[in-house]
Specification:
CATH architecture of the largest domain: 3-Layer(aba) Sandwich
CATH class of the largest domain: Alpha Beta
Helix content: 25-40%
Strand content: 15-25%
Distance between the termini: 92 Å
Number of strands: 12
Radius of gyration: 29 Å
CATH superfamily of the largest domain: Response regulator
Largest sheet: 5 strands, parallel
Number of helices: 11
Number of domains: 3
CATH topology of the largest domain: Rossmann fold
Order of helices and strands: HEHEHEHEEHEHEHHEEHHHEEE
Length: 321
Amino acid sequence: MKRFSTILGTIWVSMLIGFAAPVPAAEPIRIGAIFSVTGPASFLGEPERNTAKMLEEEINKAGGLLGRKIELIVYDDESDTTKAVTAVDRLVKRDRVVAVIGPSTSGSTLAIVPKIEEAQIPLVSCAAARKIVEPVRRWVFKVAASDILAARKIFADLKQRDLTKVAILTASDAYGAGGREDIKEIAPQMGIALVADEFGSIAGLVTMNDVMEAIVGEFPSQGERAKPVVKKRDDGSWLIDAMIDLDAVEKALPGFRFDGGAHSEYQTLAGFVVKTLGHVPKEGETFEAQGYIFEVLDMDRHRVDKVLVMQVKPAPQPSQS
């Protein structure tokens, strides 16, 4: 409700300084609104519509704005940018509103900005993308905090927890694209490393497992997890499933032991590989530890899948004469 009080306050100030076209005294002040009342963004649009209508009633009971009643004309864009453009055309050309509130989403807002600038009436968006107000436009405003402010707060919290490696998964709409740009811009400034960057659409019911698989690759099924493989090859090397636990690695490799704190940082060979290299590896990367050479043999997207381990042959000792 506080957000919509701010929106109506912005519109009122705009009218006082002459942004809005004059309206005959006998008519109400017509304010347009475009919300995603239905569709995927309805969790935003429906409460926005309800709040705006409630405030319309309260303001009119209190005497209206500038001594006149207000009339809020609401259109549902159904979470569709094309329908948002159609709605703003109706508000400007047919309903002759003095200002527009909304839309609910960044994509729809950016889609109607050219129409708003052409009509020269104030738009107060409910969306958050920084591109809505940058570069500064005379007729375009927003009340939601920009994505980059949220990203800074998130990264500051991660730094306090000593977490500096993150993976991001963003949708392919305007909101996701804008947020992704902000994250990639400020991550290096704040000492955050992006180890994975997945950019695409998410549809239907999404679980945390779906999100993680989109970032790191497909997880093995329960049956597969129960049977991690360590295969001793004819040449003396070991082909190891990277999902194997640390105890099984120590049993397979003679004399190899993880340090005491290893189990608190990672539980699998894949975790050991990523920790040792300091980044998500590529196929063919190698490192040496405790007399063994570890080679990343296979990756499943960003997940280590198979590791080849070879024992370093000791250098021949010089003969004693």
